[in-house]
Amino acid sequence: MIGYRRTEGLIGEVRWAPDEMGDASESHRQTWSLTMQGGQAPMVRHGSEYMRSVRVMKNGRLGMATSRLDGWDDLQREARDALRHGVEVAMDVSDILGGRTMPIVSRWDPDWLSSIDATVRAVYEGLKGLSPDFRPVVTVTYHEDTVEMVTSRNGRTAWMRGYWELTAGGRQVDGTDFHGVSGARLSGHGIPDGQKLLDELQARFHWGRSHYVIQSGRYPVVFLPPVAMGLLNPVLARLSGPALVAGNSPWEDQQGLPVLSTAISVVSDATLPEGPRSGPFDDEGTPTATHTLIDKGVLKHFILDRDASRRLGHEPKGMGYRGTLNGPIQAAPANVTVTPGPSTWSELLRRFPGVLILNGWIGGRPTNPMRGDIAGNASDLYWVEKGEVMGRVKNAVVSVNAFDALREQLIDVGNDPQWIAQGMMQIAPGKVPPVLIDQVDVAVKQ
Amino acid sequence: MPQDHAADDGVLATLQTLAMRDDVDELEIRLEINETTQIDTLNDRITRQIHTVDVGGNVRVLLHGVYGFVHFDGWDNLGDHVNEAIMLATSGYGVHSTGRTNKEVSGIRLIQRLALKENPLAISLDTKGAVLLHYADVARTAHPTIKSVTTRYFDRYRHLWFVNNRGSAIEQEKLDLGGNIVVVARDRQGVAQRGVSFGSSNDFGVVRGLEDEVHEAAMTAASLLDAPEIAGGEYTVVVDPHLAGVFAHEAFGHLSEADGQVGDPGLLAQMHLGRNFGPANLHIYDTGRDAGSRGYLPVDDEGVSAEDVDLIKDGVLVGRLHSRETASRFGETPTGNARALHYRFPPIVRMRNTVIAPGDTTFEDLFQGIAKGIYAKGSLGGQTNGELFTFLAAEAYLIEDGQVTRPLRNAVLTGNVFSTLANISAVGNDFTRYESGGGCGKAGQMPLPVSHHAPSLRIERCLVGGRGR
Ligand SMILES: [Zn+2]
Question: Among A219, A439, B60, B300, who pairs with B336 as Cys (CB 3.0-4.6 Å)?
Answer without folding.
Answer: B300
